[in-house]
Specification:
Blueprint (H helix, E strand, L loop, with lengths): L15 H15 L6 H34 L4 E5 L4 E4 L1 H7 L23 H9 L4 E8 L5 E13 L2 E10 L1 H16 L3 E6 L4 E4 L1 H6 L8 H4 L5 E4 L12 H8 L3 E10 L4 E12 L9 E8 L1 H5 L1 H4 L2 H4 L2 E7 L4 E4 L1 H7 L8 H6 L3 H15 L5 E8 L5 E12 L8 E9 L1 H12 L12 H13 L6 E8 L2 H8 L1 H19 L4 E6 L2 E7 L6 H12 L4 E3 L2 E3 L3 E8 L6 H18 L3 E4 L2 H19 L6 E10 L5 E12 L3 E3 L1 H11 L1 H22 L7 E5 L1 H6 L2 H11 L7 E5 L9 H12 L3 E7 L6 H4 L6 E4 L1 H4 L6 H17 L2 E4 L5 H10 L3 E2 L10 H9 L8
Parallel strand pairs: 22-23, 25-27, 27-28, 28-29, 29-30, 30-31, 31-32
Antiparallel strand pairs: 1-2, 1-5, 3-4, 4-5, 6-7, 6-11, 8-9, 9-10, 10-11, 12-13, 12-16, 14-15, 15-16, 17-19, 17-22, 18-19, 20-21, 24-25, 24-32, 25-26
Helix pairs in contact: 1-2, 17-18, 18-19, 22-23, 23-25, 25-26
Length: 862
C-alpha cells in the first residue's frame, strides 16, 4: 500500500490564491464610502503592497523551477523523515514516473533496496557540515534498476531540516570499466597498477605470467620488495626509489621505456623488462593517486649482449636529419631500410613522395610548421614501397636551430619507426570479433562496413572490389563431404591471403566466395596484379589424403567510382564480371564493363520471366515415346517441359533449366511438371487409353528440398493413379547422398509402386558403391554415349559396361538419343530392350501422343 502523501509535502509555492483573495477584499474596502478618505487611502496602500509582494513571490517561484529543472541529473528534495518534497524534470525522465507518483512518497519508492535506518548516517554526516556520497541502485517505474552515485547536502526549509540529493547515473561508467578490464586482459603486454604507496593492486594476465604468479597467489604478496631485487642496465642494484613506477609517483611525470632487471631471490631467476610508467591523477588532484606500468619481457635480447646492441634495429627505429636551407635529408641505415631508399643525401620531398597522397599533405604541413618555429610533430603515416607493398611508419621530428639569429639555419631531426606490424595488429584486433571462424578472414558484415567507410572517405574512395569464386568446389564438397570442403575453404583462404599480402582487405563473403578490397589511387593496376597473383596461387592442385583436386578460381573486378559508388553496386558488378569470367573460360579474371551491366540486366529480366512462367501458364509438356527396340511398340513416355514466353518466344530447355537450378526455381517448376504429368495420365485413362507410364525428371535440388515421397503420394491420390503410372528419373548426384533420409525416401517411393531410374548414367559420379544400396528399378543410358555407337570404340566400351552393370544388378535399361537404325541394332545386340529418340519420335503434344497410341500401325517396324 502506498503511503498517504503528507500535507504541504510539495515545495510548489501555493500561497498566491490566498494573497489574491485578500487583495480583492482590500480593493472592495477601498470603495466603501462609509470609511474616511484617510482610511481608504491606507487600505489602498496595503492592497498595492500586497500585490507587489505576490508578484515577487511568483517570480522567485518561476526562477527556482527553471534552475531546478535545468540540472541534467535527477535532483530530489527530501525531508528529515525521508519523504520526497520535490523532483526535477531529469528525475522524472530517469525514473520514468510523473511527479504525482513520487512527491509525498518515501524515498523507498525510488530505491526499494535501502536498509532500515538508512537516513541516520546521512544526517550524521550532514549535521557535521559534510556532504554525504553513496553508490546505490535506483528503480524505474517498470522495475528495472540502474546504478547511481548520490551526493547529498543539508539545508532548512520553513524551519525544518531537509536535504537535496543529486543522483548521477553510473551505467555508462560501469560499462566502460568492464570494457577497460577486458582490454587489459587481452593485451599481450604486462600491465600492473600500484597505489600512491607503491603497493601492487592490479596485474593483467600477461603480467602474472611474466612474474610467475600462479592461481591462489596474490599479486600484492608476490611482488613485495623482499622477493625481488631491481637491477640497472649496467648490472648494479637499483634502489626501489629509482624504479620507474616510484619515479613517476614522485615526479608526476611519465617515465618512458626504461630497461631494468628483476631478480627473484628465491627462484634465482633474472627477468629483463622494458618498462614505461604513467602516473594517474584523480579528478581535481594535484598528485598521482596511482601509477600504471606497461612492460615487455626483453630477457632474451638482454641475455645476448650482441643481440641487445641491435635492439634499435630489431625495434625498427631509425634516425633522420634534414637541413632546411640546403634541402638535404640524411637517413640512417634503418630509416633507409624502412623507407626502401638509399641512405645517401636525399631531399625531404623524396621521403614525402614515399607516402600515400593523404599522408603526404600531413607530413608536408608538419615539416613546414616546424621549420617556421612551430612545435615538433609525432605522426603515424602510411606509405608504399617500390614493389607496391604498403607500410606504416611513425615519424617524430623537431626543430634544432644552429644560429638563433639565422632563421635559415634550422635543422629538423627525428626518428622513423616501422609500425607496420603494430598497425596490422591493431587492424586484426579491431576486426577480430567480425571474422569468419572457418578461414579467419573478415566476414560478410565486416567487409561491407569497411567498404562503406572507405567509399565515404574521399582519400580512400578510389578502390576496387575483387569477387572470387572457387571453380568446381561443389564437386569436392559433394563427393568427399563437408569436412573436406571446409578444409578446402581454409586452404583456399590461406592461398588468397598469401597472394594479396598487405595490399588489400580479404573476406569470405559466403560459401566458396571471397572478396578483396584494395586501393587504386596510387596504383591503378593493383587489382589486376592481385588477381593474377591469386590465379597463380591456385596453379597447384589441392590434396586431401589420397585424393587430388585441381581447384581454380574465377575473379570479377569492379572499380569505384566508375562501376559504382555504393558497396552493393560494386559487389553486384564484380559478381557479374566473375560470372562472365566463369562462363568464358574459368580460371581467369574479368573486369566489369557496361556490356556486362546490360547482360546482367537481361539475366535479371530472364529470371523474372522464368519465375512468373508457371502462374502465367507459359509452360507445357510434350511426351517422347519410349519404344520396344525389337518390335517398335510404345511402352511408355517421358514428359519433357517446354516454355513459350510471351516476350522471349519459344525457349529451349537447356536455356532455362540450368538457370532455374541456380535460382532454386527448379523446385517449383518440378512440382508443376509432376502434377501436370499425372493430370495428363489421368486424362488418357479417362479417354479409354488405359494407364500410360510417364517418366518425370526430378531435380537434385527438388530431391533435397522437398518432402518428395509425400508430394508424389498426394499427387497420385489426387488423380486416383497407381504408383506404377509414374517413373521418376534422378541424376547420378543423388547416389552420393548416402544418408538415411535418402534411402528412406527411395524406399517410400518404391512402396508406392513408383518406378525409379538413374538418368544419364555414366556421365556423372558413377558411384557404384552407392548404386547397389538404393532400391531403384533401372538405368538410362546417356545420349552422350549412344550417339557414338557403333563407330566410336570408347562409346561402345561405355555402353557395354553400363549394360553389364544393369544385368548384374538386375536393373532395367533404357537408351536415350537413338537416332539411327545402326544404333538401334547395336543396342538390341547389346541387350538393351527400350529406347527413345528421334528415330522413333520427338516430344509430342498430348493429343498427338494419344493419336499415336490409338493408331493400329503406330509401332516401329523391324
Amino acid at each position: 500500500m502506498k503511503p498517504t502523501p503528507l500535507p504541504g509535502a510539495s515545495l510548489t509555492l501555493s500561497a498566491n490564491d490566498g494573497t489574491a483573495q485578500i487583495a480583492s477584499a482590500l480593493d472592495a474596502a477601498c470603495r466603501d464610502l462609509t470609511l474616511s478618505a484617510h482610511a481608504r487611502d491606507l487600505l489602498a496602500q496595503a492592497r498595492d503592497a500586497l500585490r507587489s509582494a505576490s508578484t515577487d513571490a511568483e517570480t522567485a517561484r518561476l526562477r527556482y523551477h527553471a534552475l531546478f529543472d535545468a540540472v541534467p541529473d535527477p535532483v530530489s528534495i527530501i525531508d528529515e523523515h525521508g519523504i520526497v518534497l520535490d523532483l526535477n524534470r531529469a528525475g522524472m525522465a530517469a525514473y520514468r514516473r510523473p511527479r504525482s507518483e513520487i512527491i509525498g512518497q518515501p524515498i523507498d519508492v525510488l530505491n526499494p533496496d535501502l536498509p532500515r535506518g538508512h537516513m541516520v548516517p546521512v544526517w550524521e554526516a550532514l549535521d557535521r557540515g559534510d556532504t554525504y556520497v553513496i553508490e546505490v541502485t535506483n528503480m524505474r517505474a517498470d522495475g528495472t534498476r540502474f546504478p547511481v552515485e548520490v551526493h547529498s547536502a543539508g539545508f532548512e526549509l520553513d524551519g525544518r531540516k531537509c536535504l537535496v540529493a543529486v543522483a548521477r547515473d553510473l551505467s555508462r561508467r560501469q560499462e566502460a570499466e568492464v570494457r577497460y578490464r577486458e582490454l587489459m586482459e587481452v593485451i599481450d603486454k604486462g600491465i600492473v597498477i600500484q597505489n600512491a604507496a607503491g603497493e601492487f593492486v592490479y596485474g593483467n594476465g600477461a603480467a602474472l605470467r611474466m612474474f610467475g604468479i600462479g592461481s591462489g597467489q596474490t599479486l600484492a604478496e608476490q611482488m613485495r620488495p623482499e622477493h625481488w631485487r631491481p637491477i640497472r642496465e649496467d648490472g648494479s642494484e637499483m634502489p626501489w626509489e629509482e624504479y620507474p613506477a616510484m619515479r613517476a609517483l614522485r615526479t608526476g611525470k611519465q617515465i618512458e621505456s626504461t630497461l631494468l632487471g628483476l631478480y627473484h631471490r628465491r627462484r634465482h631467476q633474472l627477468l629483463w623488462l622494458s618498462v614505461t610508467a604513467v602516473p594517474q591523477y584523480a579528478a581535481g588532484g594535484d598528485s598521482p593517486e596511482q601509477v600504471l606500468s606497461l612492460f615487455s619481457d626483453v630477457t632474451e635480447l638482454k641475455r645476448d649482449s650482441a643481440l641487445f646492441d641491435r635492439v634499435q634495429a630489431l625495434a625498427h627505429i631509425g634516425g633522420w636529419e634534414w637541413d632546411c636551407s640546403q634541402d638535404q635529408l640524411y637517413l640512417t641505415d634503418e630509416s633507409a631500410r624502412i623507407l626502401d631508399q638509399a641512405h645517401t643525401a636525399l631531399s625531404m620531398q623524396d621521403m614525402i613522395d614515399s607516402l600515400r597522397p593523404g599522408d603526404r599533405t600531413r607530413l608536408r604541413e608538419a615539416v613546414d610548421a616546424a621549420c617556421g618555429g612551430g612545435p615538433g610533430f609525432d605522426l603515424d603515416l602510411q606509405g608504399t614501397h617500390a614493389d607496391g607493398h604498403a607500410f606504416w611508419v611513425r615519424v617524430i621530428g623537431e626543430a634544432e636551430t644552429g644560429n638563433p639569429d639565422d632563421a635559415a639555419a634550422v635543422r629538423l631531426t627525428g626518428t622513423l619507426q616501422d609500425i607496420t606490424a603494430l598497425k596490422q595488429g591493431e587492424e586484426t584486433l579491431r576486426v577480430q570479433a567480425r571474422t569468419d571462424p572457418l578461414t579467419g578472414l573478415l566476414n560478410r558484415d565486416a567487409i561491407l562496413g569497411e567498404l562503406e567507410q572507405r567509399l565515404q572517405d574521399k582519400a580512400l574512395s578510389r578502390l576496387a572490389v575483387l569477387y572470387i569464386d572457387l571453380d568446381r568446389f561443389k564437386l569436392v564438397n559433394d563427393v568427399l563431404g563437408h569436412a573436406v570442403g571446409d578444409e578446402l575453404l581454409a586452404s583456399a583462404a590461406s592461398r588468397i591471403s598469401s597472394a594479396v599480402g598487405t595490399e588489400g582487405l580479404i573476406a569470405r563473403f559466403g560459401g566458396d566466395e571471397f572478396l578483396v578490397v584494395c586501393g587504386t589511387d596510387d596504383d591503378h593496376d593493383r587489382p589486376e596484379r592481385i588477381a593474377d597473383a591469386i590465379l597463380a596461387s591456385f596453379a597447384e592442385a589441392f590434396r586431401f589424403g589420397k585424393e587430388e583436386f585441381a581447384i581454380t578460381t574465377s575473379i570479377g573486378i569492379a572499380r569505384a567510382p566508375v562501376d559504382g559508388e555504393r558497396p552493393q553496386a560494386l559487389i553486384q558488378n564484380a559478381d557479374a564480371a566473375m560470372y562472365d569470367s566463369k562462363r568464358r573460360m574459368r580460371n581467369g579474371r574479368q573486369s566489369f564493363t557496361p556490356a556486362l551491366a546490360q547482360s546482367q540486366s537481361d539475366r535479371l529480366h530472364f529470371e523474372t520471366q522464368l519465375r512468373r512462367a508457371a502462374e502465367n501458364e507459359e509452360f507445357h509438356l510434350v511426351f517422347q515415346p519410349q519404344v520396344d527396340l525389337r518390335h517398335g511398340r510404345i511402352v511408355a513416355a517421358e514428359a519433357l517441359i517446354r516454355w513459350r514466353n510471351f516476350h522471349l518466344g519459344e525457349m529451349r530447355p537447356d536455356h532455362f533449366i540450368g538457370q532455374a537450378e541456380s535460382t532454386g526455381d527448379i523446385v517449383r517448376i518440378g512440382s508443376w511438371v509432376l502434377r501436370e504429368a499425372c493430370r495428363q495420365i489421368a486424362a488418357w485413362r479417362d479417354a479409354g487409353l488405359g494407364i500410360v507410364r510417364v517418366a518425370v525428371n526430378v531435380s537434385y535440388r527438388q530431391f533435397l528440398g522437398d518432402d518428395l515421397a509425400n508430394t508424389v503420394k498426394a499427387t497420385l491420390d489426387q488423380f486416383a493413379l497407381p504408383g506404377s503410372a509414374l517413373e521418376l528419373e534422378f541424376t547420378e548426384r543423388v547416389l552420393i547422398e548416402d544418408a538415411p533420409e535418402t534411402l528412406r525416401t527411395f524406399a517410400q517411393l518404391r512402396d508406392l509402386g513408383v518406378m525409379l531410374a538413374i538418368d544419364d548414367f555414366g556421365e556423372g559420379y558413377s558411384a557404384l558403391n552407392y548404386l547397389r544400396r538404393l532400391p531403384i528399378h533401372g538405368l538410362k543410358l546417356s545420349q552422350l554415349f549412344v550417339s557414338g555407337v557403333p563407330g566410336n570404340q570408347s562409346d561402345v566400351a561405355v555402353c557395354q559396361a553400363v549394360a553389364g552393370i544393369a544385368r548384374s544388378l538386375g536393373l532395367g535399361l533404357v537408351a536415350e538419343g537413338v537416332e539411327s537404325e545402326a544404333q538401334r541394332k547395336f543396342l538390341l545386340k547389346l541387350g538393351v530392350p527400350i529406347g527413345q529418340g528421334f528415330l522413333f519420335s520427338p516430344g509430342l503434344p498430348a493429343d498427338e501422343f494419344a493419336h499415336r497410341l490409338q493408331a493400329p500401325d503406330h509401332a516401329y517396324r523391324d
